[in-house]
């Protein structure tokens, strides 16, 4: 590069830096304004996530972008990122308390990661939260006495037993709820142990989400739903979406979604380890798509093995799902061994057909994801 | 909501809309400034992706964000998104032509997706590009006569044969290069068929990337590297990173990365299809992590089965890799059948240990990805 070029570039870069500093000031202003919206909503008890307002606002900005010859996706992506930041900050303001005369909420397993998250959210919403963990059973009965709700969030493999043996003497009006990732058995156990209101919840997110905005919580109704309606309202105020489901239907879906997928990811990691794959080397060669997949595998192994053992070993049905999977794997492998390219293509096309409109939808979704993975790359 | 609340919210939303419109104006200004940088770089032949300048600029903005009580990740994410947009726009300006006295570039397979992408990039850089496709072999010899480079990008299963039978009479000085996703055999075939300069390339990205910025191209040297140095320079000017590798090492990594991963994804889709999974239902229950995984599976089936058959059937080594994988799957399944939770946890911990520092790194990377997947969600 000659001196003139260097000078021109430096000059332009100073101007860009100036624009970026103005961006920061606008961000500060926007975050403050949305915080004020949050405060108004907080006072009125309105949910923080307003999909319709969001959609209308994005549509207007997209149109304005087009008029200015800016890609509409650019402004949408940036505004979504800003909204995420505002959702994260909502927690600082606290949330409206929907039920003000509940009494205490006792969280059984309150020291677990999900327990801590719910303790935080409930406390931010003005509830009195007490915690019972493994070694606290002696003090538990005195806590239960004043409990308006008991929320169970302990490892799956002990959930039903704890419900049956420790939670069978709750006050009649107390709500009994759980956060276990399977629902049929815990719900049954709760209905047997307790004669009052019962509800099963499954938060469909990890405890490392910064905010509940747009996250999903599955609800399986147990008994006396009018008594815990406020709880669902409260969760909506946190920004989450409530999806109602029958426990059995939920559990069947989870066999495909959780147990099988986790198991398959586990085997993939195990395989890399046994092949003594050179991760540095793999990453060097990696396309964004593989980097993403590798990250999803590595993610599993950064977490508590007990958690995954619990999920995988909890459901008998998942053993069948996993066995079916291996049968399909074997039969696909035999195509490969026979070198039967044509049969592979036929099976592929069958599956494509079955995916139907979902396949192109997934392709465009994943393209957006891969682009954002590529954005994160640096030398 | 009462009237006062509605009024307050409307007022605040108007102010937010105003901020967002100012954002759009800053975006327009920034895109224009970066386009000017691009024009200066274009004239000087400097690569568009400048990692050091990028890192220094981001570090400054992050610090300024912290001083303004804004999350540094917020400004980094937004600036990365803006940079992506600018990279996309670079193509409109064109790129500096590194080698001005090359003669024609003939792309064998120029109608394929990757062939089209390279035709576009080379044309934007001022090269004369001619295309040979399946039915053009009659005219090929006349095109080859004036060729400074022949670039092969056709299905893997015919690559070596076409090289041997059709590309064995190129002018001595002509560069012979290929873009196949395996490298050892095509490279050998090229070295045998042609006595002049030979190089193998593997672009580590799909043809649907909008820009080559930050993408990786693997280079396996063949013969007379000083004769095709300009090509690697040219690719760098497009923004990509060149990673040099031995063909065999590359192919071994690809067995783990591509063949096995694609096969495993194929089986996962096949399995969903055979179980007649209710995709609507699965999506309703889906956490961001599963939505992402499902999207990665669906993505495969939106594409050409021949492409995947080519990749999976091309390498004999991948059959071994896939067989090893199924052995690991079987042995993990037997733990499950025996209900041996302890052994599962031990294996899990071994793999975690093997992942080492990569596990937490992948966890934080994937957290960022999952958050951006969640940002995209809407009702």
What's the helix and strand layout?
The structure is a homodimer of 379-residue chains.
Chain A: H1 3-44, H2 51-67, H3 72-93, E1 104-108, H4 113-124, E2 129-132, H5 140-145, E3 147-152, H6 156-166, E4 175-178, H7 184-193, E5 198-203, E6 216-223, H8 225-237, E7 241-244, H9 247-274, H10 279-285, H11 288-301, H12 305-314, H13 316-337, H14 341-355, H15 358-376
Parallel strand pairs in A: 1-2, 1-3, 3-4, 4-5, 6-7
Antiparallel strand pairs in A: 5-6
Helix pairs in contact in A: 1-3, 2-3, 6-7, 9-11, 9-12, 9-13, 11-15
Would you summarize the structure shown here?
Chains A, B: Residues 3-94 form the Chorismate mutase domain. With 379 residues, chain A is α/β, with parallel strands linked by helices.
Major sheet details of chain A: 7 strands, mixed
Low-confidence stretches of chain A: none
The helix content of chain A is 55-70%
- Compressed to H and E, one letter per element, the order of chain A equals HHHEHEHEHEHEEHEHHHHHHH
**Strand numbers in spatial order across the main sheet of chain A:** 2-1-3-4-5-6-7
Task: List the total number of helices of chain A.
Answer: 15
Strand fraction of chain A equals 5-15%
Rg result of chain A: 25 Å
Mean pLDDT of chain A: 89
Shape of chain A: globular
